[in-house]
Amino acid sequence: MIEPSRQQAKRYYRPELDVLRFLAFLAVFAFHRMDYVPTDPVKDLWVYRVCTVGAFGVPVFFLLSAFLITELLLREEAETGQIHVRAFYVRRILRIWPLYFAVFFGLALLNRFVPGVGTDNPLAWLAFTFFSGNWYITFKGWIAGSVDPLWSISVEEQFYLLVPVLAAWGGRKALAVTSYGCLAGAYIAVFLYGLHRSPGDHGEWTNSFVHFQFFAAGTLIALVLRGRLITWSAPVRLLGMATGIACWFGAMLGFQVQSWEPQPTAGGSVAGWLLILLGTCLMFLSMLGMSEHHVPKALAYLGRISYGLYLFHSFVFFLVFEQAKSLLNRVAASLGMREMGRNAFGTIVVLVLSVVVAHLSYRYFESFFLKLKRRFTLVQARD
């Protein structure tokens, strides 16, 4: 089932996890498509269901991030004899903050000329500046399609505020205890949401405590594997991936757990979130340890730029389906496309443009900070 990683201690890079990261982005991309492309839950039932379940790509990002950061911290300790907390925070700042703040405040500035693309609310500016944007949305509601995906960055930064300190202070035991505590806290929160159902979106999806379960799971997987890789055969990996997806659909169809307006019972809420957690873990384990020879380099690169893809894609959707709507209609009409063809064509345009923008961002903006980040990196990862 598992074998020791053959990667050197000073380097840990798994390209298959970049592929998983891109697949998670595609799931989120499909979900956000519904913000701009009307999707009838009756006439387009399965398109609606596939797009709805796509929101669960976010937990994949969370679990993946926690696994990799835990693995790198533990390798750093094994290599150097300690965990360098300050270096961790510097690395985190250089990787996340520049593009995050450029996008958020860039959209806020653009909002003065294109209303609806960002926010002019100073309270929202304050919340997102101090990485509590998810709590702002939880209590105040969604802001704008282009801005809303940034809530998940706040959740990540909150979780990582203490992780390196815990790892340096208490090692594996402290990380394990904290992870189990996060799992317990997540399901207490999930249960309480189920007990106090209310009409509309009541903030469960953006609640940090609910999502800490995925960070906890990623951390625990790293602790259990201890650097070893999964050695499942290709058929078993495919089965694991399919079962993981089935778990997501089971949560949505069987227990009504979804990312907005979830109204399950308390028991159904717990069961549904457990299925989402199980499905996310299965997808991750089904990818980890895949031979590099079976990993398409193009998909690995798309996973490498997935941070930019995630931050930019909703803005590109806004530009194509809102700001350039008349142009899109004219082009579609000239090609003889009806509404379905027009929407499919527009979606492809959004995906291609998102890739182009993310590539340019990675090469000409993010790479500068990634080079600085390497100065504080003791165990080299992808970037």
From TrEMBL:
One of its GO terms (molecular function) is acyltransferase activity. InterPro entries: Acyl_transf_3_dom, Acyltransferase_3. The chain crosses the membrane at residues 12-34, 46-74, 94-111, 123-143, 174-196, 208-226, 238-258, 270-289, 301-321, 344-365. Keywords: Acyltransferase, Membrane, Transferase, Transmembrane, Transmembrane helix. Its EC number is 2.3.-.-. It is an enzyme of class 2 (transferase). Residues 15-358 form the Acyltransferase domain. It holds the Pfam family Acyl_transf_3. PANTHER family: ACETYLTRANSFERASE, ACYL_TRANSF_3 DOMAIN-CONTAINING PROTEIN. This is Acyltransferase family protein. It comes from Terriglobus aquaticus. The lineage of its organism: Bacteria, Pseudomonadati, Acidobacteriota, Terriglobia, Terriglobales.
